[in-house]
């Protein structure tokens, strides 16, 4: 069953119902509240906006949403039904350069981050500047607006090599960890800004995800495999297939973000991801098996000796403190995503 693609970005209604039911307590926290959202037109943001609008439709929550966007006109041209959604307004501007106004907000979702794989140092430096300065601006907004709490969406990249353990990086590893890429260091600096801002905040350290609206032509292996499958294969593994990741479906992601915002301990960080680890070769084969008949998988390199590429979270804190868990297993996440992609291509 599906709602119109413009209202909810084509996200299947089953996924929206999943979020509605599993975040039932969190929705009531938003009744009549004012929210400010950065990153609202990206992968995370589209899922969050769709879930918010769906919950408002079903529960009559009466909240108000303000979304920071560099180009709201383009967004509304591509998604015209959102112009008629009375709860939504846009503030035009860049996260690192907008001027916080005087309007009050109850909650802030700061999820703006460009995860593009840049090829030049200039591009990397600009992204790092945007992450740090953007967070500085949002913290200023939080203070001016009297926000009750801010959710900062950070990244597993803050753990550096600590995320390369088969057991995954735990939040306790953060103190001794060192970022190994500029993106991770910028995220660490943004977290430090939050810690020194004197506001009520909580941090979600996001790892890897697989679901509708995941970019198919970026540097995400899961997206590339899904693209190859849609084209009829073969699915190309650009490596030896030994790299290990874990993937959380975005319907679970939204539930996690909402619960962390409302139930997480002040100034505490929580890993957000799955602990169902899989090699890239296994992931490619799982995706290949969703086709009828099954597609060929081509692994393009011989397995190298030495340490493998691993990026995994330890999610025991989220389980123990917030009763969060992975409720959509990887194979189901793949099946749901492939069904979404096929339906979208058939429209």
The ordered H/E elements are: HHHEHEHEEHEHEHEEHEEHEHH
For the report, how would you describe the main beta sheet? Answer: 7 strands, parallel
Order of strands in the sheet with most strands:
3-2-1-4-5-6-9
Structural class: alpha/beta
Sequence stretches where pLDDT stays below 50 over 5 or more residues: none
Q: Give the averaged pLDDT, no decimals.
A: 94
DSSP strand tally: 11
Determine the fraction of residues in helical runs and give it as a percent range: 40-55%
Give the termini separation: 15 Å
- The rounded Rg comes to 20 Å
Individual helix count: 12
Tell the overall outline: globular
Percent strand equals 5-15%
Write up this protein.
It is a single chain. The protein has 347 residues and is of the alpha/beta class. It is built from twelve helices and eleven strands. Strand 2, helix 5 and strand 3 form a beta-alpha-beta unit. The model has no long low-confidence stretch (mean pLDDT 94).
Summarize the topology.
Layout: H1 5-8, H2 13-22, H3 24-29, E1 34-38, H4 43-59, E2 64-69, H5 72-78, E3 88-92, E4 107-110, H6 121-145, E5 149-155, H7 182-195, E6 201-206, H8 221-230, E7 235-237, E8 244-245, H9 250-263, E9 269-272, E10 278-279, H10 280-288, E11 297-299, H11 316-322, H12 330-346
Parallel strand pairs: 1-2, 1-4, 2-3, 4-5, 5-6, 6-9, 7-11
Antiparallel strand pairs: 8-10
Helix pairs in contact: 2-4, 2-9, 4-9, 6-7, 8-10
